[in-house]
Design a protein that fits this description.
Blueprint: E1 3-8, E2 14-20, H1 31-36, H2 41-54, H3 58-88, H4 92-106, H5 108-133
Antiparallel strand pairs: 1-2
Length: 134
């Protein structure tokens, strides 16, 4: 079973489509892998360290690359979502859903502005409606 994730314009016409499969086979990619491609700061930070480690030998460079990948994975999938949940009391699943939905509808600009907009909406709903219910 394959799903196609398309980013498009606000009018709904797709620009870029990425086939997604549950196993990541047949030319597809898992959804978290598609979302990780948006982040390139960790890759940019790893390049100098791996180049310097390469001067010591290829085994050291592979170890340095493994450390960079592990740190970026832990930060992106554990530390940042937990910090966001603590700071704004927004569930991580809501944050991921907002990013994916905004990316599908508005493309790259939607991905960049989805989380701040979701935080603002969450705080407004909490302040305007949730306090009145109590």
């Amino acid at each position: 079973m394959a799903v196609v994730l398309c980013t498009g314009t606000a009018s709904g016409q797709p620009r870029d489509c990425l086939p997604l499969t549950p196993t990541g086979t047949q030319g597809g990619a898992l959804l978290p892998n598609a979302l990780m491609n948006v982040r390139f700061g960790g890759t940019a930070a790893a390049i100098p360290g791996v180049i310097i480690a390469l001067a010591q030998g290829p085994e050291i460079a592979l170890r340095a690359l493994a450390v960079y990948v592990a740190v970026q994975f832990i930060e992106g999938h554990l530390v940042i979502p937990l910090a966001q949940k603590w700071a704004v009391q927004m569930p991580p699943a809501l944050a991921l859903t907002a990013i994916v939905a905004a990316g599908i509808v508005f493309g790259l600009a939607g991905v960049l502005f989805a989380l701040p907009l979701a935080v603002v909406i969450t705080v407004l709903v909490r302040e305007l409606y949730a306090d009145r219910i109590k």
